[in-house]
Structure formats: structure tokens, C-alpha cells
Design the sequence.
């Protein structure tokens, strides 16, 4: 690297332990070799630099993906409002699935149906999360589902046709 020799003097040491020195000419330019006084100071500097670079890259990646943006429409809801909202979304999604099934079949529609069914499943997982956060807030729609000796199959929760 080409250095301006008027700024730094040979043997000058920065506060973090970096030492300037060893001027020489290469291809007609004055060059300077740099060295660290102790390896621990260099390791500390390198780790801090790498951590800062990783943090900056993660922040830029998050900005590109739209992560960590403030939610302007985020509302605080009570547990009962969350449950009602999740259940209503499940019913509405099931209605969309039924409308898709009424159309002539195609690969794209089959994929759309699968994704909507996956959405219903994730809403069910949200209900499970609410129940684990506040036990008893949602009743178990499948009380016999974990009993292998029972042959009873319960109807779909929320009366959905899926």
C-alpha cells in the first residue's frame, strides 16, 4: 500500500498497538510495511473489525428483505381477540379452499390449495402457542388424538372441510 510519509513517522505506534515502519521502494513508489507490537492486539482488532463487518452485512440484508421495519398497523390484542381472529381466519381460508376446489383442477391450483391448507395449519399452531402461553384459553379440539388405543376420529376442528 502506498503511504504518505509526511503523516506517519517510522516507528510511530498507535494507541491500539499498531506500529508503522520499514519504508522501501517498489516499482518506483515508496511503500511501508506495517506491523503489530503484540499478536493479542492484532487478534482483538481483527475480531472487532470482522464483527463490525458481519453486523453491517446483517443490517443491510435485513433492510433488503424488509425485516425489522416497524409495524405501523400492529395492534395490541387481548387473548380472546387473538383466538377469535385466528379462528375466523381459519374459516375464511377454508372458504377460499372450497372455492378453489370448485374450479377445474390444475397443478397451480393444487399448489395454491396446499399453501392455503398450510396457512390453516399455521393458524392452528398459533392457537397452540396461545394455549401454551395461557393454559386453558383454548380447549383441545382433539381430546382423543394422543390415545393410540382409541379408534375414534374426531371431525375437523371449526367445522372446516379442507
Sequence:
Amino acid at each position: 500500500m502506498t503511504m504518505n510519509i509526511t503523516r506517519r513517522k517510522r516507528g510511530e505506534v498507535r494507541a491500539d498497538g499498531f506500529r508503522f515502519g520499514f519504508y522501501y521502494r517498489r516499482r518506483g513508489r515508496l511503500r511501508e510495511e506495517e506491523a503489530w507490537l503484540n499478536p493479542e492486539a492484532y487478534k482483538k482488532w481483527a475480531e472487532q473489525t470482522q464483527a463490525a463487518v458481519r453486523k453491517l452485512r446483517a443490517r443491510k440484508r435485513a433492510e433488503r428483505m424488509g425485516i425489522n421495519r416497524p409495524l405501523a398497523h400492529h395492534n395490541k390484542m387481548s387473548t380472546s381477540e387473538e383466538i377469535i381472529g385466528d379462528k375466523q381466519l381459519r374459516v375464511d381460508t377454508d372458504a377460499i379452499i372450497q372455492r378453489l376446489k370448485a374450479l377445474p383442477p390444475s397443478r397451480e391450483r393444487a399448489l395454491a390449495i396446499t399453501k392455503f391448507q398450510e396457512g390453516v395449519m399455521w393458524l392452528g399452531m398459533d392457537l397452540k402457542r396461545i394455549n401454551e402461553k395461557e393454559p386453558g384459553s383454548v380447549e383441545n379440539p382433539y381430546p382423543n388424538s394422543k390415545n393410540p388405543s382409541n379408534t375414534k376420529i374426531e371431525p375437523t376442528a371449526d367445522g372446516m372441510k379442507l
